[in-house]
Design a protein that fits this description.
about 650 residues; 28 strands; alpha+beta; 19 helices; 4 domains; Beta-lactamase
Length: about 650
Amino acid sequence: MNDFILIMQKRLKFLMVLFSLLIIVLIFRLAFVQFVNGSDITDKAYALWSRNIPVEGQRGIIYDRNGKPIVNNKLSPSVALIPRQIENKEEVASFLSDVLEVSYEEAYKHVSKHVSVELIKPEGRKLSLEQAKRIIDKNYRGVYLVGDTTRNYLYNDYLAHVLGFVGIDNQGITGIEYIYDDYLMGNSGSSKYFTDAKGNALSQLYGLYEAPTKGMDIYLTIDMDIQILLERVLENTNARYNPDQILGLAMNPKNGEILAMASYPSYNPTEYQKYDQEIYNRNLPIWMSYEPGSTFKIVTYSAGIEEGVFELDEHFYDPGYTIVDGTRIKDWKAGGHGDQTFLEVIQNSCNPGFMEIGRRLGAENLFKYIDLYGFGKKTGIDLLGESKGIVFDLEDVGPVELATSSFGQGNSVTPIQLVTAVSAAINGGILYQPYVLKEIRMPITNDLIYEKKKNAVRRVISEETSDVMRYALESVVAKGTGRNAFIDGYRVGGKTGTAQKAVDGVYLDNNYIVSFIGAAPMNDPQIVVYVAIDNPKNTIQYGGVVAAPIVKEILQEALPILGIPKQADQIEKELRWGWDTKYYTVPNLIGLKRKELPPVYYYKYEFFGEGNVVKYQSPRPGEKVTEGGTILIYLSRE
C-alpha cells in the first residue's frame, strides 16, 4: 500500500513538473508572440481586414513666366465599390447604369465581382459634380466616392500644342504634360476600410486615410498675355483669309525663351478625343518643314557682310533675272529693280542681288553659315515632335542650287530654326537654344528646385555684322518690302517671305506660304515674332501684303506688354503716294492761349472745356498725328 502511494506521489510530482514546464513554455511563447511578433501579426490582420481604395495624387500646376496659372486641377471624384457590402445588387446596378451611362449588364458585372474593391473604368472615373451628387444622395451601402481630380486648362485651346494633355489616369501623354510628367505627377494615397470576410464593416476599427502628395509646379517662359494676343490675331487671320493652316511664334532673341507659340487649327486638351491625331500631334512651329522663301535671305546677307564680299553702298544692277549655268532665274518683280545699292537689295528683296551675294560667297562659305545658324539639325527645344528640316549636301550643290539657296529656295527649314537664326543675326551674333521650361518649384512652399539657364550654342557672326543687320532690317521695314510692319515710335526690323510650295518635286501654282519675321526695338531687340500663313485665299499672296500687317498688329500690342517704351530715333518711313499715311509730330501746346495756337493745315484742333488756356492735349507733345487727324485740346480758365 505504501509503495502504491509512493508511486502515485512520484507520478503526481512528475505531472505537476511537466504541467509547470508547459505553462512556462506557453508563457514564453505568448510573450514572444506578443512582444516580438506582435506588430507583424497585427499588420497581417489589418491587411486581411483592410480594403484599400486608391486616391490619386494631384498634378502640379503649370504657370506662365509671370505666375499666372495656365493649367490647374478641379475636383472630379471617382466611384469605388465594395461588392460584398452591396445588398440589393440589381437596384444598385440599375442606378449606376443610369448615372454612369453604361449598360445594366456591365454595371451588374461590377457590383457582383468577387473582389475586395472594384473600380469602374473608365465610366466611373472623373465624374461630374452632378453625377457625384446623385451618388451621395442615394448613399448605397458599398458604393463610395473617392477624391480625384481632372486637369483644368484655363485657356481652353490656347497654347494647346505646347501644353499637351493627360490620360484617364492623369499621366501625361503629349506636350509639357508628358515631357515633365515625372515632376508634375503626384504620388497616390488611399482610403482604407476594415471589413470581415463577408464584407461587413468592423465597427471597432476606424478607417485610415493616406493622403496623396501633390506634384511639383512648373513655370514656363510663355507670357500668356502675348500668347492670347498671338492666338486672337491668328483666329482673325483665319476668318479673313481661310488658309490651309497658320502658325505663329514669339521669342526673346537674347536668351531663347519662347514667349508665345501657336498652331491653327488648334484643339481643346480636355476633349482631345474629338480631334484627329493630325491636329494635336503636330505643333507646326517646330514640326512643319518648308522652303522659307525670302526670310532666309537674312542668312545670306549676314554671311556676305561677315565675309566682306560686298558693301552696303556698293551698286548692283538687276535686269529682272539672272542666268545661272544656262538656267534663267527670274526676280519676283517683272523687269527687275534696275540700279540699286546692296542696302536696297535687301530692302527690295531682290533675288538677283542675293544670287550675286551667294556667288561671291561660294557654296562652301554659304553652307558653312547655313550650318552655323543651325539649319539641317534640331534646335533641341524641350518639346515633342521637332523636325530638323532638309539642307542640300555640299557635294550636291552646283551653281543652280547655290543660286536658289541664296534666296531661300531648295532647302527646307522649320519656323523654330528660322526664329533662332534670325535672333542670332540681330542679338550680337550668338545662337541660343530655344526653350519653354523656366522653373520647377515645390508646391505650397514655392521653393525653387530647378531653374533653366540660357544656353549659348555658338557664335555665328561678329557683333559688328549684327549691328549692320539690325540697321539693314530696320531699313526693310522703313523703306522696303516690309513697310506694312512699320510702327510709328518703335524701331521695327524684319523681312518678308513668299515661298512656293512643292509637291512631288513640282512647285504649285498660286499656292504659297507667305510669312514675315519682325523684331523690335532694333537698337536693343527684345522680341522676335514670326507668322506664316499657308495658302491664304482671296488675296495677293505676298508676305509683305498679308503677313507683315499681322506681325505689326502683334508687335504693336506686345511691346507695351513687355514694358518697352516708344523711341524717337527710328528710321523715317519712306512714304508711297496713295498707299501710306503721313504722320506729323505734335507740338507742345500746353500753356498757350487759344489765340496763340499755331495754324494747322494737315490736321485739326477739337476743343473741350471752358476757358482760354490749354491745360492738356492729346496726342501729347512729341507724339504723332495722322494727316487729317485731330488734336484734342482741353481748356481751363488759368
